[in-house]
Amino acid sequence: MKAEDVVKLVKKQITAVKIPNERRVFATVDKKNYKETLLTLKSNDITHLSTITGVDTGEQIVVIYHLDCGDGVMLSLKVPLPKNDPRLQTVTDVFPGAILYERDLMDMLGVKVEGHPDPRRIFLPEDWPAGKYPLRKEEAPKKEEAKK
Amino acid sequence: MTFIVPIGPQHPALEEPEHFRIEVKGEEVVDVDFRLGYVHRGIEKELCNRTYAHGLFLSQRVCGICDDAHSSAFTRAVEAVAGIECPSRARYVRTIGIELERIHSHLLWAGIAAHEIGFTTLFMLFWRDRELALDLRELLFGQRIMSGEMVLGGVRRDITPDKVPKILRNLDALEKSTKHYINVCTSDRTVIARCANVGVLTKQAARELCAVGPTARASGIDEDVRRDDPYAAYDEIPFKVITERDGDVFAKVVVRLREILESIHIIRHALDAMPKGALATRFPKKVAPNEAVGRVEAPRGELFYYVLSNGSDKPERVRIRTPSYANFPTIKPMLVGSTIAEVPIVLASIDPCFSCTDRITVVDARTGKSRIVTKEELRRLQK
User: pTM of the full predicted structure?
Assistant: First the structure.
């Protein structure tokens, strides 16, 4: 599938799109539409979810679904979420391979993934304090550590 | 009644620690659970506190042996973010480094697999010949692993013509022995008995669980980042993507061994076709706000980097997804239904890559219940 065809496929749902080169597409989609977008892609034989990235931009937490659309085209589908209440529905029913990535997202950025079949911690220890998320902006390295 | 067998975090069958809880009914495995994070070093966060040039060194240290895979993925993403192109000679030098790494990594894995099935002679032979590839890396880049030959925008060292005869000699020796090993592995009764129809991952399961690399290719999924999304000089070098249909451990052995032969062809071709020219382009100190995805085919499969820049000399966010991480969910369908004796070789078959531990599991033999002991509890117990 070519980059333009991928965009055509999800044209209705996405709000912004950027094609920096022939094999990379970055698109933004609203929280209410992302699941539908993923289902549309899945029904068009796009089955490989490379990973899910979470980015803390300061005001928002942006969740990015990286999908391999065939022919090397990588679609990065961004879903911006409000930082005070980042909440999403699980996509494991669409892409079962997302199971660890969503646990990762919950651990590292505190995004609540609703309906996840196994919402245990994945990387953080059991005695890690609740409400502390290592990849959030406010978790800066301690001063003495930063000096090293 | 079922019983839980804990494997790891420290276990002789795992080269690097990892924790698995295997639920068995008699000899049969009925469920599998695993715990990751024993070696979580916070590298994604740390990369944001370093300049791009400095971060490259940290990215190489994500994995113990795949430094070239990580540096090629990092440079690919960062060069795309900065909008610079690597000169063509440097692309060929990179390709040779990456393929030498694939050869030694696959031979390392084959040795471990042979060890896992109790075939120690074969293990010794695989590791003896792995030295041929490591010697070449030392000759070309000054170090067997962690060579750091890639820099942002190019490579550090050239491959001079006086080194070519030695490279070709070692490649010939590697090709001869790899062909012999393929012959041994596909005809030896021990190997077939321990690997054929063991730990089967169906094509459908591999696709659903988003498996990558040799694990996916052994299940008949025809994907390879080198061909589908070429980087370095792969768009100019013809090679075959090796796939097998059966999805068992045996298929994974065959895929990896045949990939070594392909890597040898790629290096020979690259040495032949290498253009003359510069080794590196200048990399800017500061990078304008941008984002890019850089992915490469590491020996274990698709390695994924996402880099977001913010206009400074440090990245805003770097996301790394290693191939072993992507392949972890496939362990469950491979193990459930097999016997406990098959667990080590099946676990090894995805070539998992991890290390170090900080907690333990205690299993109460009477109830079969287990619980995790935290660091605090351990400290109290020490007193």
Answer: 0.90
